[in-house]
Structure formats: C-alpha cells, structure tokens
Amino acid sequence: xxxxxxxxxxxxxxxxxxxxxxxxxxxxxxxxxxxxxxxxxxxxxxxxxxxxxxxxxxxxxxxxxxxxxxxxxxxxxxxxxxxxxxxxxxxxxxxxxxxxxxxxxxxxxxxxxxxxxxxxxxxxxxxxxxxxxxxxxxxxxxxxxxxxxxxxxxxxxxxxxxxxxxxxxxxxxxxxxxxxxxxxxxxxxxxxxxxxxxxxxxxxxxxxxxxxxxxxxxxxxxxxxxxxxxxxxxxxxxxxxxxxxxxxxxxxxxxxxxxxxxxxxxxxxxxxxxxxxxxxxxxxxxxxxxxxxxxxxxxxxxxxxxxxxxxxxxxxxxxxxxxxxxxxxxxxxxxxxxxxxxxxxxxxxxxxxxxxxxxxxxxxxxxxxxxxxxxxxxxxxxxxxxxxxxxxxxxxxxxxxxxxxxxxxxxxxxxxxxxxxxxxxxxxxxxxxxxxxxxxxxxxxxxxxxxxxxxxxxxxxxxxxxxxxxxxxxxxxxxxxxxxxxxxxxxxx
Amino acid sequence: xxxxxxxxxxxxxxxxxxxxxxxxxxxxxxxxxxxxxxxxxxxxxxxxxxxxxxxxxxxxxxxxxxxxxxxxxxxxxxxxxxxxxxxxxxxxxxxxxxxxxxxxxxxxxxxxxxxxxxxxxxxxxxxxxxxxxxxxxxxxxxxxxxxxxxxxxxxxxxxxxxxxxxxxxxxxxxxxxxxxxxxxxxxxxxxxxxxxxxxxxxxxxxxxxxxxxxxxxxxxxxxxxxxxxxxxxxxxxxxxxxxxxxxxxxxxxxxxxxxxxxxxxxxxxxxxxxxxxxxxxxxxxxxxxxxxxxxxxxxxxxxxxxxxxxxxxxxxxxxxxxxxxxxxxxxxxxxxxxxxxxxxxxxxxxxxxxxxxxxxxxxxxxxxxxxxxxxxxxxxxxxxxxxxxxxxxxxxxxxxxxxxxxxxxxxxxxxxxx
Lengths: 493, 418
Ligand SMILES: Cc1cc2nc3c(=O)[nH]c(=O)nc-3n(C[C@H](O)[C@H](O)[C@H](O)COP(=O)(O)OP(=O)(O)OC[C@H]3O[C@@H](n4cnc5c(N)ncnc54)[C@H](O)[C@@H]3O)c2cc1C
Hints:
With about 500 residues, chain A is α+β, with helices and mostly antiparallel strands. Chain A folds into four domains: about 10-95, 2-Layer Sandwich (Uridine Diphospho-n-acetylenolpyruvylglucosamine Reductase, domain 2), CATH 3.30.43.10; about 105-220, Uridine Diphospho-n-acetylenolpyruvylglucosamine Reductase, domain 3 (2-Layer Sandwich); about 225-415, FAD-linked oxidases, C-terminal domain (Vanillyl-alcohol Oxidase, Chain A, domain 3, 3-Layer(aba) Sandwich); about 435-480, no CATH class. Helices cover about 35% and strands about 20% of the residues of chain A. In chain A, strands 12, 13, 14, 15, 16, 17, 18 and 19 form an eight-stranded antiparallel beta sheet that branches. In chain A, strands 5-6-10-8-9 form a five-stranded antiparallel beta sheet. In chain A, strands 1-2-4-3 form a four-stranded mixed beta sheet. The radius of gyration of chain A is 23 Å and the shape is globular. Chain B is α+β, with helices and mostly antiparallel strands and about 425 residues long. Chain B is about 25% helix and about 25% strand. Chain B has twelve helices and 19 strands. An eight-stranded antiparallel beta sheet of chain B has the order 15-12-14-13-17-18-16-19. Chain B has a five-stranded antiparallel beta sheet with strand order 5-6-10-8-9. Chain B starts with a helix and ends in a 15-residue tail after the last helix. At the A-B interface, strand 9, helix 7, helix 8, helix 10 and helix 15 of A face strand 9, helix 7, strand 11, helix 9 and helix 12 of B. Bound molecules: flavin-adenine dinucleotide. Flavin-adenine dinucleotide binds near residues 39, 75, 157 and 459 of chain A.
C-alpha cells in the first residue's frame, strides 16, 4: 500500500465514523490534531490522520471496528506523558484518546479493589482510596498527570516499586477492545483466572494488543509508619555501595534513590532542596511498615550509610520534612532543564551489583565524548535514568548526545541488564531491541501479537524493529518508517 | 518408523514404563534432554514426525488438567537441574527447569524463592515439584500475599517452542519492560505453549524471624475476623483460612521480620483475634521459615482426592468457605489473596463431586472469581467440567495456534481442550 492509499482510507473511515459517533468526538482540524502530534518524547512528531476523543468504552469499540473494516491503524493515547514515543500517532491512522474516560467506578476497601476507566489519573485512585486507608502502589513520578491506561500499557514503575512491584502486580482484570473490535475481559477480580495469563501479556504491551477500556486494580493498605532519610556521600560509588549493603542486610526499603553531583546541582538550582553541601551523591531511602520495625530499620540504614562514608544523614520527622527530601528527587528531570538547554532522558537497567562499575564506565564515556551526563536513579532495582545533556544549537551536539545515549544502553546490555526498566520501547528504542534479543526471541514475542492483531493495526511500528509476518498473510507496512525515523529536530524533552 | 527410531541420536530416549502413564494415557518413550540444545533437537524431531509431547519434571502434578489426547513422548526435564547462577547482591537465581524446588531452596542459603510446594513429598521418588513444574502450573502458596504469586517472581526464561526454536523471554533484572512479558504468558500454561528449560527468578531474603498466629474461629466469626486481619497495618506475609465439613475453621496469620517486630505484631494480633476466637489463640515461632505449615491438601502420598482451586474477591471468602464445607469439602488457602484450594476425598461419588464443583463455580463467579478442578480421581474426572467458563478463550486458542500450530504439546490438557 502506498501513502496516498492510506490517505483515502482514512477519509472513508471518517465517513463511516461520522455515521456512528457524535460529532464532538471527531477531531479533524489539522491544527487541533497537531496538539496530539507527540507524547512526552517531543522529538518524534507526527500529525495523526484523525483524533477520536471517546466518551465511552463503546465508542472505543466502534472506532476500532471501523479501523478493522478499513484496515487503518490506530494508536491509543492516555495523557501523552510517555517517554518512548509509544503514543506517537500515525499520519494515516486514528488516535484514540481516552482522557475523557475518567470515571472511578468503585473503590472497595473490603476487597482492596478499585474499578476505573482508563483515562483516570494515577494519583486520583490513591486520593479516592486514602480516606479508607488504602492507596494504589505504582507511583510513576508523573502520577499527577499520567493515566491508568498508560500505566497498564507501559507496566509503569515508580520509586516505590522496589518493594511493591510494578503495575503488572496491581492489575487484576482489564476490559480490552482487541484489534478486531471485540471487547474481552482478561483476568478476574480474584487472581489466578483460568487459562493463559493474557492479562500478564497485555500489561506492558504498549498499546500493540488493543485498547484497555476498564481496569480492576489492587489497592494496598497504607503503612502504619513512613520514614524518609537523606544521606550525603562523596561519590556515587559510596552511595551505590551503601545501597547494596542495605539490601544485603535484608532490608527492603519502600524506595532507595540516588542522585549524582550534576543532578543535585540542577535540583538545587530549580527548587533549592538544600541537600548536603559538597555531596558527590545523595541517597534517599524511604522505609515503611509497622512502626517498631521501621524505627529499627532506620537505625540500621543510618549505621550502614556511616560505614560507607556518609558525611551527613538526615531523617525526616514529619510529612513536611519528608516532602522536603523528596522535592529534589522529584524535580530532577525537569530541573536539568536549568543547567542544559536540551537533554535526553535515558532509561536502562543493570543488575544492582553492577551499579558502581556501570556508573564509572558511564563517567568515562561522558568524559571521553565531552558530553555531560547527570544521573538520577532507582538504585534499589538498578534502574538508571541518565540525563544526557546537550545544546542542540551546537554543531553535532545532538548526534554526540544520541551516541552517548546509545552507548549507555549498550553498557546496560553488556552487564546483563535491559534497555528499558519503565519507560517502554515505543518508537524510540525499537531499533535497540535486536541488541538485547535475538531474531528468534523477537519472533516469539510477536507470536502473541499475531494472535491478537494479525493485521498489525494496533500501534504498529512500536516495540519491534521488524514486524513478524503472521501466518501466510502478506505483511502490511503502515508507514511504520515514520516511527523508526526520529525525523527532524533534536531529542528535546 | 518407531518413535524411538525417529528420536535416535537427539538425546537419551528409553521406552516408557507402565507406571509412566500421563493421567491414564500411555506414552511410547521417555526422552531426557540434558540441555536446551538437546531439547531443541528433540522438539525439531518431534515436530518433523508429528509426535505429541508432554513435559514432565517430577510428575507431581502431571495429572493436573485434562488427560492429553495422545502422548508419544514424555519429555523429562530432570537432566536440566543445575543452579546456573545465584547472584546474592541482586537477589536473583537462574536454574534449570528440572531443579527440584526443595534443592533450590537449600542451595539459596539466606535467600528463598517464595513459593510453597503444594506437592511436597509427592511426585517421582517423593521429591516434590521441580522449578519448571511449579512455573508451568503457576504454583503459589500462602506467602504469595507477601511476595506475589509465582508469575510475578519469574523474571526470565529460556524456552523451546514446538518446532525447536530456542527463545529467551525477559532477562535477569527484576525491572524490565523491553518487549512482551512472555514469562507471564508461559507461567501457568501447563506445558501447552513451549518447553521451559531454564528460568530466572526473583528471590527474597529469608526473614530473621517468622511467627504464625493461629486462631480457631467458628464459621460465624470468620467474616469479621478475616476483615479485621486484612484491614490491619501489621503487614502479614500470609493470611490463611482452613475449614472442614465438620464445621471447624481456623485462621492462620504469618509474620516475617525482626525477632522483636514479629513478636510484637503476633502478640498484638493474637490479642485482637480473641474477640472472635472459639478457643485459645496460639502464637508459634517457626524455626524453618521455608516451611509452609498449612495442613497438606492430601495426606497419604498415593491418595488422589478431587482438588479444586476456587477464588473470589476478598470479602467473598467466608461465603465461599461456607459453600465448600457445606458440600463436604475441606478448604485451605489464602484468604488474604482470595485463592482457596478445596478437596473432596477420593471415594466421593462423581455426582456429589460435580454438584460441589457446580456450587462453588456459581458462587465464585458471583463473587468475582472462578473455580477450576486441578485434579480428580480417574473415575470422576471425565464427568466434570474442569475449567468452567474461561473469559478470553477465543484469544487463547489463537495464542495456542501461533505457538504450537501442530498441537504437539500436551494436546487437550488445558482450557477449552487446547
Ligand atoms: C516527568 C515524567 C516523569 C515520569 N516518571 C515515570 C516514572 O517514574 N515511572 C514510569 O514508569 N514512567 C514515568 N514516566 C513515563 C510516563 O508517565 C508513563 O509511561 C505513563 O504510564 C504514561 O501514561 P500516559 O497516560 O501518559 O500514556 P501515554 O503516553 O498516552 O501512552 C503511553 C502508551 O500507552 C498506550 N496506551 C495509553 N492508553 C492506553 C489504553 N487505554 N489501552 C492500551 N494502550 C494504551 C499508548 O498507545 C502508548 O503506547 C514519566 C513521564 C514524565 C513526563
């Protein structure tokens, strides 16, 4: 099929949808469509062929059915905060936006469950559950804006996932519109539903297996006690050593995060978080649980930090002080904008024990290439977020930054890690998948895709660099090349 | 060509013995590959010759599910039983699928894979489950409340597809969202999608101290007592319920942590549970934290009761317990998670078993769960609907068709006769 073919199919589809959807759901105006051209990774921009702002789950099904009839690709979009171009639209496809699906249907403390629409904002679930003594544990830093549908699609994590696990462990059941327009329920409100764990396969599938239209979530009991502490070290080596020692001691902190000197500098400039002066690294440790044990663990953490060269240790005494400690960490991504006009947010994982070595290597790469790299990371699970700084107006700076960013991923793979811990593969990292997986591995994953979406209509061009042919069907190439090519412009976040 | 002839040279193959039936279905041979490569060669040969394969670890749960339509080859994983890696600092381990769970736990020292072997002491030579077998049946026990079900603990796998393709799923880091989570799909797939030859699992430190609080609770007190425990902030590692048709019921709550901490929490809960208890509430210190000390689902090893997994939303558990015991079943399971196992003695009439299953199925469906017959005596099993309604079955068929188009792997064993 050629591009022009797609253009005409989109208009036939539009006629079709006009007959079945209310006019206000269909966004056709080019400049309005432009507002959806990218997600949180603004370097990739494509104006969607059509935007459908659905009001109901039925409208999702209607839209997907029409796409199936006309063989037009569709992309789901929640809040558009994704950092891998997962919600990057198709020029000749439909963007299905769930942000009006915002009903919190049920919050039941006695069952530890919430039933929500996909457009519901992550933090809203916890806000609704808090008065009952519960919360939704997965807490991406973007939780004030990102949607549950996006969390499900990305299997999102957050600082507290070290102890409480990722989104996948907190979703019991999903209503899903599959690419043929059928609505199926995957999983049950109780765990261990009969049959294959399609729910487990769907979570983290980045919108390539269908559109989630309703989710049943597990709620977690609020802990009796929460203590947060901040430890200043001379270097990330020491902070990393303390992290390993804390975990080796049998403590499972709710969160354990490290920021390096450059990240601290940025955070100080942005929010004056008042971190220990002269620190080459800070470690933020949060402990939660029964009060007696949290108090004991806090003492152990303090001792371990001291043993590893910590020169300043603060433990928050109340919620306000806790927020103060977190302020620097939570602002880190945005804060880096203060010290660099442009930057790439990288997301890689290494085994926790490799952290010191990987950080040293990264330092070496950074020095050799003359590209500054700030580091903020979920140390407990080895999830690095290197921020590669550059100035796009400088000649060749963008390319150098991209090169360093790629080298960091190679470093993660060499150490037995992953190219993404929580931001997903999306359009951005599809090209790195073959570095981590063999052709056989990738083909095997795509068997699932073929079962759900043999025509490759659901978010094509994402995750996999080369779509697998399904059965004997001819391969459809829905201008996936757009997704593979970052296009013009720097990787500006 | 004989089956043995077709497989000659790929790996060790011997004729199957009489007692090696798979739930009454006679295999021709038992093949014992010692590596992923040999498994791949074996599966290639089987697919060339259209041979049906059932994977077996120690066979402790080989009869779970429906009997396969046909078995030519039993693929035994016990030749792949090594500990490949135990990274202490990373709290992960990689082992061959044939690694016995019991041996794995021993070798992990201060760490553990948090899974309770429901088949402990059963299987070939009474060796209990293998790692691969546990994963294939998504075996999860009491402490899943703490560490999650096995499906959340498996972070990577090496698998061989029906056509011999070797693929890796996931990796060896806990946090990883690169590509589909095939490990989840394959966990609990009963060997019908691929042969798991190696798995990487997430470990947890063995807590410094483990204590169980055990309270006899009359059925009328079950709902408020469970509600209290589940809503507490004491962070139990397990909340178990046990009930018999004779009307006895008890609640067991496990705490793990520091010696002082677990003592304080156990004592607090024991005092609180007194309100509903029909007798003395005991606090017991468990020396060996790895033992799941619930009553075993079955007593004698040769015994083959009807074993049912029934689930519901948390608040529905007391009703589910009542329906099960009302039908003569003994129930045990995780009230804190919403997954119970109910058994009926081997000599129960098929009609009575079918009625009990039906009653549980209706109740669990109304309460947001499901009811599945894991195993039943040979005289009973053919008369039961083992799986009940399976949401998403059409998609599951498509998944099976993609992974194993020739239906070589345990045909008929799983949901919908897949
Ligand atoms: C400042 C900042 C901090 C962040 N911090 C974190 C963090 O700590 N941890 C983390 O994991 N992520 C983080 N992210 C990334 C992002 O917020 C998460 O990936 C989030 O889950 C995306 O949600 P969304 O609603 O914005 O999804 P979108 O960006 O709209 O979409 C993301 C993907 O989900 C798919 N999708 C959306 N809705 C559905 C649906 N209903 N059904 C099927 N597929 C769907 C899309 O097609 C796309 O592939 C951060 C982002 C920002 C901007």
